[in-house]
Amino acid sequence: MNFTQLWVIISFFIVLVTYNRNNKLHRILLGILSINLINEIVCLILLYLKVNISLAYNINTFFHHSLWLIILFSIIKRKKVLNIVLPIFLAYGIVNLFLFEGIQKFNYYTFIFGSFLYLIFFIWESFYRLKIEDLEFFLSNSYILIFAPVLFFFGLSVVFGFKSKELSDTIIFGNTRLYTVIGYFVNFVYYGLINVYIYREKKIKYEH
């Protein structure tokens, strides 16, 4: 078990114990962590059986990115945009899965495209809030939540964008690869911010 898998398990149980089942965003967040945890377990089993894990990760990308888009547009209250963006992402992913990169390979472009959609609307909303001087938005717990996957999406998209095994396998120090360093860092921030968000949500609930 590596650091990322352990961090996924810890974060899953933290959210499971502290989430508010009456809060839609909390349920979606638990769904994301559940999907990620299930994916890690399935992939470990497939690796043990020496079966290709690409399809498992491709399915995970569909659900993972879709749920984050739902969270983002729910928080910024632009559900009409979600009704356009989400079908575009899903359609692109399905076409890429069956016609281009295929089911036997990890669909880099689907991951990158979904990440790009999230990042572009996150950045656009952030600039819009700055323009109208809505500083409370950046101090809110909701902003912590939608910021949580930003480095994850950006960091892995940069690595995946080159589709270069040589680049990913570049040794940074000792026997540690570039992909491992970036992967550990972005996942630490990703799940760390989710834990901060859910902790603050519980704290706010008790204060009220």
Structure description:
- The protein is 81% helix and 2% strand.
- It has 208 residues and is mostly helical.
- The chain has one domain.
- It has a two-stranded antiparallel sheet.
- It is globular, with a radius of gyration of 18 Å.
- The mean pLDDT is 93.
| Structural class by SSE content | mainly alpha
Order of helices and strands: HHHHHHHHHEEH
**Beta-strand content bin:** under 5%
Helix content: over 70%
- According to DSSP, the number of beta strands is 2
Outline the biggest β-sheet: 2 strands, antiparallel
Structural domain count: 1
Distance between the ends: 40 Å
Strand order of the largest sheet: 1-2
- The value of Rg in angstroms is 18 Å
Low-confidence stretches: none
Mean pLDDT: 93
Shape summary: globular
**How many helices in DSSP terms?**
10
Q: Which features would summarize this protein structure in a list?
A:
mainly alpha, single chain, globular, two-stranded antiparallel sheet, 208 residues, 10 helices
Topology record:
Elements: H1 3-18, H2 24-48, H3 54-75, H4 79-100, H5 108-131, H6 135-139, H7 141-147, H8 150-162, H9 165-168, E1 171-173, E2 176-177, H10 178-207
Antiparallel strand pairs: 1-2
Sum this structure up briefly.
Helix content is 81%, strand content 2%. With 208 residues, it is mainly alpha-helical.
